[in-house]
Amino acid sequence: MGEKTDKEAIKKLREKRKTSVERAKKAMKTHNKFMRKIKEQIKTEGKTVPEIAKATAISASQILWYIASMKKYGQVSEGEKDGDYFKYQLVS
Known about the structure:
This protein is of the alpha+beta class. The chain has a single domain, classed as Orthogonal Bundle (Arc Repressor Mutant, subunit A). It has 4 helices and 2 strands, in the order H-H-H-H-E-E. The protein has helices spanning 2-16, 18-42, 49-56, 60-72; strands at 76-82, 85-90. The protein has a two-stranded antiparallel ribbon with strand order 1-2. Helix 3 (49-56) packs across helix 4 (60-72).
């Protein structure tokens, strides 16, 4: 009897959180898509945030946020300056 009650509770909980789960899945899908686009741009040569933004059609502010996160976790390195901007490249 307890197992049936547990299954019913889980079913209700899933239904209750369905919207939140779907929203999180959508956000994660967008995040992964942006990361792939950014990594593709900087895998062979360094590029500035505006260059990456132009090539990917992602806003410069979002690119900067992703680059800062990637830099924090050692995924990108900051290279030479090109005018006012640093060039970023994937770390091998």
